[in-house]
Structure formats: C-alpha cells, structure tokens
Amino acid sequence: MSVDSFDELEGRVVALLEALSQLKGENDLLREENRRLKEEKKGVRTRIDSILSKLEGV
C-alpha cells in the first residue's frame, strides 16, 4: 500500500469516527426527548383519568 492509500484510509476512519460521535450525540438527545414525552404522556393520562372519573360521578 502506498502512502496515499494510508492517507485515504485514515481520512475515512476519521470521517467514520466523527459520524459516530454525531450519532451518539443525536441518540442522547433523542433519549432525553423520549423521556420527556413519556412524562408528558403520563401527565395527560392522569388528567384524562381525572376528567373521566368526574364524568362518571355526574
């Protein structure tokens, strides 16, 4: 392999590592958003249950 081949290979490895880092960051953001949405869903469900129980009493 020539020096050019090693340089090209190194460039590809660096690009892959950068892409991996970006994907890990995006994954962290999506996990946090998912957690937040689950909490929001839980709150909405609680409110709906409360409204339904009030309607049952009518």
Automatic annotation (TrEMBL):
The lineage of its organism: Bacteria, Pseudomonadati, Thermodesulfobacteriota, Desulfuromonadia, Geobacterales. It comes from Geomesophilobacter sediminis. Gene3D superfamilies: 1.20.5.340. GO terms for biological process: cell septum assembly; FtsZ-dependent cytokinesis. Keywords: Cell cycle, Cell division, Coiled coil. Residues 6-47 form a coiled coil. Pfam families: ZapB. It comes from the Bacteria. The keyword Cell division applies. This is Cell division protein ZapB. InterPro entries: Cell_div_ZapB (IPR009252). One of its GO terms (cellular component) is cytoplasm.
